[in-house]
Amino acid sequence: MIEVKESIVIKTTPEKIWNFLISLHQKDTYKKWHQKDHIILKILKGNGVDIGSIFYAEEYIGKRILRLKYKLVKAEYPFYLEYKPIFPSSIFANGMGSFKMEPIDNLHTKFIAYIKVGLKPKIFDWLWCKIITVFFKEEDLVKHVKEEGESIRKILENQE
User: Fold this and answer.
1) Which of 47, 63, 105, 106 sits in a 20 to 30 Å window from 125, CA-based?
2) Mean pLDDT of the chain, nearest integer
3) What is the number of domains present in the chain?
4) pTM, to two decimals
């Protein structure tokens, strides 16, 4: 199992972070979030904020392109979004990702990004980790998630 958890304090409200995240499919917002790595994000089903909304994303993790379909499985406005991969990657991949917004005070919010990647059944987890690291290095994923946190902070703090 590969797990990445990164957090950053942003001078903004949970609502503003939420609004940014749910607008990623609009125009160049996804690309703006991580200019070097993000390629495209689009909604395939739903409106993007309702449970069951389905997305398609392409992004670089290190030198390789990750193409992923995922479903929004939990949304608690304005504090939490959780998604899971769907078919065909869901046949093999046991994973999830989430964004959590924890208010610190009226001006600051702790933004936490979490990603977990594993294999079904869990007995093969060690094999999955060996295979996935051939294509995507764990340090590249950590770097990518950290850069996303720094970027969202710059974008939102410059809007103030």
Assistant:
1) 63
2) 89
3) 1
4) 0.89
